[in-house]
Amino acid sequence: MAAMNGGYSDNTPAADPAGPPAKQNVAPAKTVDTQSVLKRLQSELMSLMMSGDPGISAFPEEDNIFNWKGTIHGSKETVFEGTEYKLSLSFPADYPFKPPKVKFETGCFHPNVDVFGNICLDILQDKWSSAYDVRTILLSIQSLLGEPNTSSPLNTQAAALWSNQEEYRKMVEKLYNKPAA
Amino acid sequence: MESISLSDCNLGALDSLSSDSIEEILESWSCFCSTTDAILNGNVEVDVEDEFVSYVHFLCNHGLRSLVEDQFFQSLEVTFETRGVSRFWHHFDAYINGSMLMNEASGLEEVLYKALEELSLVKRCQERTLLMLVHSLESHRDSTLDKKHTSDAERVYLLSKYKLMVSSVLMASIPRQFPAILNQYFKRRLEELSTLMDGGCQEELHDKENMDLDEKRKSFSGVGEMDIDEHHNRKKLSENSLLVKNIGKVVQDLRSFGFTSMTEDAYASAIFLLLKDKVQDLAGDDYRSSVLDSIKLWIQAVPFQFLHALLTYLGDSVCPGSPSYGLKSPLASHPSSFYPGVDTPSEGLIRWKLRLEYFAYETLQDLRIAKLFDIIVDYPDSSPAIEDLKQCLDYTGQHSKLVDSFISALKYRLLTAGASTNDILHQYVSTIKALRTIDPAGIFLEAVGEPIREYLRGRKDTIKCIVTMLTDGSGGNASSGNAGDSLLEELNRDEENQDIIDLNDDFNTDDKQAWLNAQRWEPDPVEADPLKGSMSRRKVDVLGMIVGIIGSKDQLVNEYRVMLAEKLLNKSDYDIDSEIRTLELLKIHFGESSMQKCEIMLNDLIDSKRTNSNIKKTLPKPSQAEGEARKSEFSLDALAATIISANFWPPIQDEPVNLPGSVDTLLSDYAKRFHEIKTPRKLLWKKNLGVVKLELQFEDKAVQFSVTPLLASIIMQFQDQTRWTSKDLAAAVGVPIDILNRRINFWISKGVLAESAGQDTNDHIFSLMEGADSNRTGTHGGSNDEHLMGDEEGDRSLASVEDQLLKEMTIYEKFILGMLTNFGSMALDRIHNTLKMFCVADPSYDKSLQQLQSFLAGLVSEEKLELRDGMYVLKK
């Protein structure tokens, strides 16, 4: 019978990293706000990129992280299926304490979207909370497309037509301009 | 024809002539013609000459002098053509129509001699008759007291006219092969001379040796020996001079027939051919010795002697002490000492010397360049050849030849899939070192190195090989060979020479050279690293060039960190002296800050050693009872922990493993002691890392192993139960079945375990081999110190650099897809800038434009992206 006779040597534990302080840029008090906003937006971008939610996407414009371009695809089994809408998101300097301004860049025939692309969505106005982020905003808008709030419409024609989904679908297709690639 | 020219030229004179005198003139004209023919055809009688003179006088009196001359030359031409030239060429018929080959023509010399002899006979005859005419013309002039012209000018004019006629007749009828015949002749003569000289040289050497011996014995008799030596020399010279005289005569004859330039071409090309052969003969494929000096000596000995003798014979070697002395060959510092028997070389001779030397240098250079690849392969041994090549290139300045030919050799022979990365790197290092000799400014190196760097960038294991080369030298690892040593040496050398180099950084000489080269050169390839200023480029340093392959030192440092981590984790003692040394060297080169993490890793090990001994020292002696209970268990003495600051180590793969209970208790004991000593710190064990030394005791013997904890755990399970199904065993050691199956192969290959199929196809049964196969292990000797780290991809305890890179790249891919979704199409540099701008979290985007481009190309080939007119768009 084989017998074990040996010792464990050199097993490698990792010391609890109470060691050297983490490298952090301690910015002067004056710019703390901007710094933290930048950080927040960057981490939101990272999590948005890594989340890989289908049908929504956004990315900052080349030289200004406060202005983003967004893309939303109409959800399946709604009248907006197969459409793609461009959005613009502009973040205030005191984000995330104030909501970003979100507009449709592509014309959208929708009860809660006016002809200028303004969106009537509660979480973008009075129901805003700093717990929301770009991803949740985009998801909310995506679901808004399929479930409009017809009680307080910005586009009354669309609100009136909503009950007739077939006609509505035709209208969406008629008015839909595929954004240039 | 005569009448026409008569009426043309002398119309005025004719008018004044009476018909009688015309008759008379015509009469004497026809007589003149016939006598001329008679004289030229050799039927010369005494009175004919007088007649001839009188006719000439008569005709000249009537102002027909130019007619007389023309007629005479025409007759000369006709007879020369029929009697001389056609017969002359007839001699060579056999060679010309190919019935006799020239190279086997032992008779060629004789034929040439004979032909030349005959032709010069004809020519001499004709010259004599020409002189006759000249005399008669002179005497006529004397009689008419016309002293306007000096007779000399007249004679010179006629003779040169004759010469012109001779050469034009010959040239008009020259067969195509004649230059080749001449060439062949000179070649053979020269070869003869060369062997004569060679023999002489050897004899001379031999004599010298003898003389040295003699001198040692009786030094006072040196004078006599010298006499003998001189006598011998004279004998040799006389033999030579005979040969040279023959050649000289041929040359002179040929010259007199107007073949001057053709002759010169012929012997020049013969000399060059011989020189080329000689150079090739001397240089050969031996790169271990310098041949330049012996070539120079040979040039002095054979072709130069030949030319000297020839030119002297022809009387071209004149003006001793003329200003031509200033035209010394730049290579011969003391020209006069080289010419035995020649005090002052003539200008022509110097020109020849320069030509010969240039040709020799060029030939040797071409020869060496063609073999440069092989030369560099045995570089440290072949440095004499490199040194030769450097001198040749300095003289000829044909560096671009070297670059072109070497690059194509590299592409053909080195940069192929078959060559291992280590070999390529080794050759690259040798190339750097060799070319550093030839071109200290490193500008050619830049051009030559570019294809190698380009190629190496495409290889995945380049960085790893470089790091291995950098670090393995000190370990004395024989398998990595010279390459490793040389790089580590380089590291050392760099350190030692740093100050000296800085001091020697002389602006004047180096800059001038660099400027000259730069003018001759195409601009740096666009890819050349702009970060490397002219300062750093001028100082060719091997490490810098190596790092240049990778692009940034960060990648190299990172790879080094991974390798270092692996090495350190596999150490069972805390002996890190060689690592510290390497790190110190790298720090000098790459800077303290970039090596900081590595330093912390090493410090971790040093701290671990201290902590480890500290813990063991403060260990309370186990009470008697406890000691009894634990007797069969392990004591803390058997345990040595490496405590790492995980933040600074490369990501460590965490693989759960269930250690045997006794070991686990030991570990928690250790951790508890650690916590007591180092509150508030706690230990988090990475149980899958480390080395276990264990001994397996079989019935007849004990075998020692050093294995990973997982393997130790596996074999430990067999201590109580000799048969396990893979499923159960996997559960017992706490790893997935596939990993277990892979790892357990180690024990199977050692003959400790045996595998058999179970009821389920996926279930295997492992059972302990009771000593049956232990002979197999026994043959390896008692102990088996197997380090099986890294023998399989999955066996690595650390995420490799490639894995890290892949991980980074997936993040970038998401970003790129994200931005393209929202912006439609983007150009390469916009993507690059955007990534730089927004991809800042860990790991931040630090790739070059080229890396991004190749990554995007990968995405295009995966059909995720499309490239249209330089803009990337999402593939729909």
From TrEMBL, chain A:
Look up the domain of life of the source.
Eukaryota
Q: Which SMART domains match?
A: UBCc
- The EC number(s) given in the record are 2.3.2.23
Q: Which GO terms describe its molecular function?
A: ATP binding; ubiquitin conjugating enzyme activity
In this chain, the stretch annotated as Disordered covers 1-31
PROSITE patterns assigned: UBC_1, UBC_2
Q: Which residues form the UBC core domain?
A: 36-181
**Keyword Protein biosynthesis carried by entry:** no
Catalytic residues, per the record, are C120 (glycyl thioester intermediate)
For the keyword Disulfide bond, the answer is: no
Record key words, sorted = ATP-binding, Nucleotide-binding, Transferase, Ubl conjugation pathway
Record InterPro entries:
Ub_conjugating_enzyme, UBC, UBQ-conjugating_AS, UBQ-conjugating_enzyme/RWD
Q: Which SUPFAM superfamilies match?
A: UBC-like (SSF54495)
Q: Which family does it belong to?
A: Belongs to the ubiquitin-conjugating enzyme family.
Q: What is this protein called?
A: E2 ubiquitin-conjugating enzyme
Q: Which organism is it from?
A: Chenopodium quinoa (Quinoa)
Upper taxonomic classification of the species? Eukaryota, Viridiplantae, Streptophyta, Embryophyta, Tracheophyta
Automatic annotation (TrEMBL), chain B:
User: What keywords were assigned to this record?
Assistant: Cell cycle, Cell division, Mitosis, Ubl conjugation pathway
Q: Does the keyword ATP-binding apply?
A: no
List each copy of the Cullin family profile domain by range. Answer: 545-748
Asked whether the keyword Cell cycle is assigned, the reply is: yes
**GO BP terms, alphabetized:** cell division; metaphase/anaphase transition of mitotic cell cycle; protein K11-linked ubiquitination; ubiquitin-dependent protein catabolic process
| One Pfam family recorded for the sequence | TPR_ANAPC2
Return the annotated region ranges for Disordered. 773-794
Give one GO molecular function term. ubiquitin protein ligase binding
Q: Which GO terms describe its cellular component?
A: anaphase-promoting complex
| Protein family membership | Belongs to the cullin family.
Which protein is depicted?
Anaphase-promoting complex subunit 2
Organism lineage reads as: Eukaryota, Viridiplantae, Streptophyta, Embryophyta, Tracheophyta
